[in-house]
Amino acid sequence: MRRVLDLFSCAGGAGWGYHLAGFQVDGCDIADRPNYPFAYHRGDALEYLDHLTTTGDIHRYTLVHASPPCQAGCALTIGTNTSQGWGGDHRDLVAPTRALLERTGLPYVIEQPNGRAAIRKDLTLCGEMFGLGVLRHRNFELGRWATARPAHPRHRGYVRGHRHGVRRDGPYVAAYGKGGGKATVPEMQTAMGITWTDVHEELTEAIPPAFSRWIGTAFSTARQEVLV
């Protein structure tokens, strides 16, 4: 069976999508994640990946997905951090993650939000592509495999809430932060299709499973085409 290693897994938004695409999923995150719905290793993701590669155990996987933190480059935090003098302690783990992924020799996916993270934007996915109640744009670098970019449909309206002193209504909820009309926990669960956690922090960090389900299906299709 195809197996994916889900690094920096948080509560499993990406992992659940790969599960729906037919993968067996193993997660790794530095925090305790009791809501993670699959086999789970608690520890430093990069140390774990290095260990798996050194021992050869990495070869039980077909694909590696990584969502390394890069808060210093996230579009949602850049302005706030700058105005408040924050951001100095944020670590950009994208480059070391890529270096270790290249060592594995396996196909991989690196996921990042819109911002300054230095990744190749081979794919950009948006909730509107899947009829979701969030936009949640995410960029993906694809290593050792490729697929066609899906069309990005026009958004149907605004994200609900207050921004820059203006209150707007719209078909999407803001699945980050609190106050100002941002989504409640039940609204985030419904909008992203995540039912197994009700932890606010886990939901605000999650990618919708529809994204990784699409990627997992595209990867499987691409691999089958290579074999043919």
What is the structure about, briefly put?
By secondary structure, the chain is of the alpha/beta class.
Report on the architecture of this protein.
- By secondary structure, this protein is an alpha/beta fold.
- The protein is 32% helix and 18% strand.
- The chain contains 7 helices and 9 strands, in the order E-H-E-E-H-E-H-H-E-E-E-E-E-H-H-H.
- The strands form 2 sheets. The chain has a 7-stranded mixed β-sheet, with helices on both faces.
- Helix 1 (13-20) links the parallel strand 1 and strand 2 (24-29).
- The protein is globular and about 55 Å long.
- The model is unreliable at 73-89 (pLDDT under 50).
Topology:
Layout: E1 3-7, H1 13-20, E2 24-29, E3 39-42, H2 45-55, E4 63-66, H3 75-84, H4 94-104, E5 108-113, E6 123-125, E7 138-143, E8 161-163, E9 166-168, H5 185-192, H6 200-205, H7 209-227
Parallel strand pairs: 1-2, 1-4, 2-3, 4-5
Antiparallel strand pairs: 5-7, 6-7, 8-9
Helix pairs in contact: 1-7, 2-4
